[in-house]
Amino acid sequence: MPNKKSEKKTGSSPLKRLKSSLAREREFLTDEEVDKLIVAAARHEAFGLRNALMIRMAFRHALRASELLDLQWEQIDFDKGTILIKRVKGGADAESLQALNEEELTALIELQELNKSMKKSTFVFIGQRGSLFVDSFELIVKKAGASAKIGFPVHPHMLRHAKENNS
Q: What are the mean pLDDT values of the chain's consecutive 10-residue runs (167 residues total)?
């Protein structure tokens, strides 16, 4: 960080970060853009099913990246078709039971079978070396956005905001 002497000497001040609302045109995606992202993510050779399902579930259940990546198989009830979402903000009682649609259930069953051949994990979304991190999901969404030719940079939190802006 520049000191006061260098500021006076050069006449410059530290750069300030723009608010998101000023830096980007908008903070959400339309339903059509989310569909394009899902299709683009599904094209990934090795992890297309996982990537597309991650985007679909983040959008449909308005999940933060960390909430999505923290999902464990024990939170899914295949018989009832529900998922227990543990929210990271909102206090101790921030859990909600949500219904899974047929597409999600089918994809989760398929993903569970695929995961059996990989590193053993209790987490739903894993890679070849185990659990995924938030930056992994950010990269998946960014690459899917570029592949889908959305027209502007996309990030995971846009999926969370998409649901509230398209309702």
A: 49 53 66 96 93 97 94 97 89 81 97 85 90 94 95 92 62
Residue 68 near residue 54, CB atoms below 8 Å: yes
Cα–Cα distance measured from residue 120 to residue 135, given in angstroms and rounded to the nearest whole number:
21
Kindly calculate the radius of gyration of the chain based on its CA atoms and give it in whole angstroms: 19
- All structural domains of the chain, each given as residue ranges with its CATH number in brackets, are 25-165 (1.10.443.10)
What is the spatial distance between Cα 115 and Cα 125, in angstroms, rounded to a whole number?
9
Q: How many CA atoms lie within 13 A of 56 on its CB side?
A: 22
| Cut 0.85: pTM above it | no
Decide if 63 contacts 85 (C-beta within 8 A): yes
Pick from 145, 115, 164: nearest CA to 55: 145
Q: Give residue 46's pLDDT.
A: 87
Half-sphere exposure of 51 (CA within 13 A, CB side): 24
Tokens of 76: 């899914």
Give the contacts of 2 (CB within 8 A, at least 6 positions apart): 12, 13, 14
Provide the pLDDT for residue 18: 41
